[in-house]
Specification:
about 100 residues; alpha+beta; 5-stranded antiparallel sheet; 1 helix
Length: about 100
């Protein structure tokens, strides 16, 4: 199941735009907010329709110069997961490149 509590923040120059999902009794809404522009909302009876629309809208935004600046909620944990393993790297075990 796709989460509903998602907010995208896009920027283009000094402009900002936010897209957020909102659950309703009969389906889901995608709400678009821009500075100095009336709010727009798009209703979908199911999540699959919403996701298809989001993909197309995000593509159109990127083509018109908008850049994704933030995505919430952050799904990764705050713990730094990159680290050096002690000992032999198991992914390289048994790998012997051919030499000419």
């Amino acid at each position: 199941m796709w989460p509903l509590d998602i907010v995208w923040t896009f920027v283009r120059g000094e402009e900002s735009l936010w897209l957020r999902r909102a659950k309703t009794e009969g389906g889901v809404l995608l709400v678009e907010n821009r500075e100095h522009v009336p709010e727009r909302s798009y209703f979908f009876g199911d999540l699959a329709g919403l996701i298809r629309f989001e993909r197309e809208l995000v593509s159109q935004l990127e083509q018109s110069g908008w850049s994704l600046a933030d995505f919430a909620p952050e799904r990764r944990s705050s713990v730094e997961r990159r680290h050096t393993r002690a000992g032999e790297d198991r992914r390289r075990r048994g790998f012997h490149p051919k030499t000419a």
